[in-house]
Amino acid sequence: MADIVQVRCIPLTHALRAFAQQMAWALGVVLTVALVGLPPTQATAAPYAAMVVDARTGEVLHSRNADTRLHPASLTKMMTLYIAFEAVRNGEISLDTKVRISSNAASEPPSKLGLRSGQRIAFRYLIRAAAVKSANDAATAIGETLAGSEAAFARRMTRTAKALGMSRTTFKNAHGLTESGHMSTARDMTTLGRHMLYDYPEYYNLFSRTSTDAGVRVVPNTNRRLLAAYKGADGIKTGYTRAAGFNLVASAKRGNERVIATVFGGKSSTSRNAKVAELLDLGFRRAPAHAKLRKPAMPAYVGNQNIQVADGAAGKTIRVSGRVQTSLRPRLRPATEPAENTAPVLVAEASQTTEETAADTVASTPKLDPEILQASVEAAITEAKVVPASAEKPTVGTAVKTFFKGLRPVARPARLAKAETAAEPEPVVVTRLSTSGGRYWGINVGRYTNRYEAEKVLLRTALSEMETLNGSLRKVSKSRLGFEANFLGMSKESAELACRRLQARNVTCDTLGPAS
Q: I need a labelling partner for 88 at 20 to 30 A (CA). Which of 224, 430, 432, 509 fits?
């Protein structure tokens, strides 16, 4: 009986083993397929890289994998914007130029502004949307407008990168969505951020706006959390794709120190911001308190030269530059030999008087006799006096002793005595300044517990309401209740208008009248 049982158990054991092997193989296939199908951020983390520099000098304060070529994601838009600023400065386009949106730009995936094919929008709004909202459709529209096609613009981007010293960067599009060959490094993007800061400082305030008007709607800043959380942060650009992870180039200023930090491959926006804040702190600890500013050299402008534009592309005719390259000097008039026995040509023809005859005589006289010259001077002095009305003019044939009689001023007649001036009225003393048209008004945007918070609110308010607050003075006044955030030096009308606009956005605002 035992033998029978043993014979039956052996085939069962083999069957179970074979079934287990088949299940293990099938499970392995399923896991492999699942891993292949997962997005990169879920299958494997994006590679990490970081760079920290002293913005004033370019000195490297920290680096890790800084030269590894990685996906830059929307950090790409920094180069798109750099070329847009370059084009405006050199006359290729103006900020108010109306740009027609192509179907290619309108079909870009999010993040986007929501532009429609055929729509026309001012170039300045495309810049704002790309810088603040990180809008892909706006970035593509910028590239197509400046170079005729996105491919041509990508070639211009790569050429500009090489001119800036970004030796390990190549671009394939204007927005930064993942594409083969579209690569950069933490070092190169840090270099670009520093050039953005110092080459076009007039546009840098775009990156510190928590929101902006993009023409079709108001859009929030993708970097607003770091701007609000980190003291001194004022830019620059975020980026994210599944292949790249969460990227960020950030800049912060404290006192005389400014630090730029770059992170590639963050696991989330929160952890990326925390890492950037940690790197900025490290940078401020290592940066010297005082350093001489050494701005990076701006590359030479060449526009779209040496960039092939596709036939039939929109915007094919572009004014490359308004700058004069060479100045053509006028050639001298060829000298001609005067004909023999030719009388000198008179420029102006006067009446046949003694004065004309005298002038001709002077022209034909090689030298002046000193005695005759003295006589002429004396005659001129005499002639300056009142001449009698009965004086007769000599005829044409009369000999002339005075060689020149120019237009000399005649003495004022005695009858035209200077009228006595009336006694000047005494000046009126103004004891109170006018409050109707003078710039003695201001606005208050809140009271805060410390000076830093008040200054921060003043800066953000000035950036968000530049139209009415332009030219006003930001001032923090300390009182027994706290620190007052004020804008001063405004007219009554501009102060009231600014308050109305700020209150419409739920911002606390009160007008301040002139001191009585």
A: 224
**Burial class for 476, CB neighbours closer than 10 Å (0-12, 13-18, 19+):** middle
Give the Cα separation of 227 and 210 in Å (integer): 8
Give backbone dihedrals phi and psi of 167, rounded to 5 degrees, phi first: -75, -20
* Residue 312, amino acid: G
Question: Looking at the whole model, is its pTM more than 0.85?
Answer: no
- Which one of 77, 112, 133, 275 is the catalytic residue? 77
Task: Report how far residue 146's alpha carbon sits from residue 159's, in angstroms, rounded to the nearest whole number.
Answer: 15
Alpha carbon distance 351, 360 (integer Å): 13
Which of 111, 134, 376, 472 is an active site residue? 134
Angle 136-142-148 (CA atoms, 0-180°, nearest 5)? 120
Percent of all residues in the chain with a pLDDT value above 70, rounded to a whole number: 66
Give one word for 265, left, alpha or beta, with left for phi > 0 and alpha for psi -120 to 50. Answer: left
Terminus-to-terminus CA distance in the chain, angstroms? 120
Q: Taking a C-beta distance cutoff of 8 angstroms, is the pair 277, 229 a contact?
A: yes
| pLDDT surpassing 90 at residue 139 | yes
Average of per-residue pLDDT across 136-151: 96
Provide the greatest CA pair distance for the chain: 173
- DSSP state at residue 268: S
Residue with the larger pLDDT of the pair 352 and 332: 332
Residue 77 known to be catalytic: yes
Which tokens is 423 given?
């006694």
Tokens found for residue 93? 């386009």
* Active-site residue (options: 74, 102, 149, 184): 74
- What percent of the chain has a predicted confidence (pLDDT) above 90? 54
Structure tokens at 485: 């955030």
User: Does the pLDDT value for residue 468 go beyond 80?
Assistant: yes
Tell me if residue 364 is catalytic.
Answer: no
The Cβ-side half-sphere exposure at 52, using a 13 Å CA radius, reads 19
Mean pLDDT value of segment 162-167: 96
One DSSP character per residue, 56-106 reads TT--EEEEESTT--B--GGGHHHHHHHHHHHHHHTTS--TT-EEEPPHHHH
pLDDT band at 43 (very low <50, low <70, confident <90, very high): very low
Comparing 187-196, 330-339, 405-414, 432-441, the range with the smallest average pLDDT is 432-441
User: What CA–CA distance (Å, rounded) separates 173 from 155?
Assistant: 9
Residue 367 among the catalytic residues: no
User: Cα(123)–Cα(352) distance, rounded to whole angstroms?
Assistant: 70
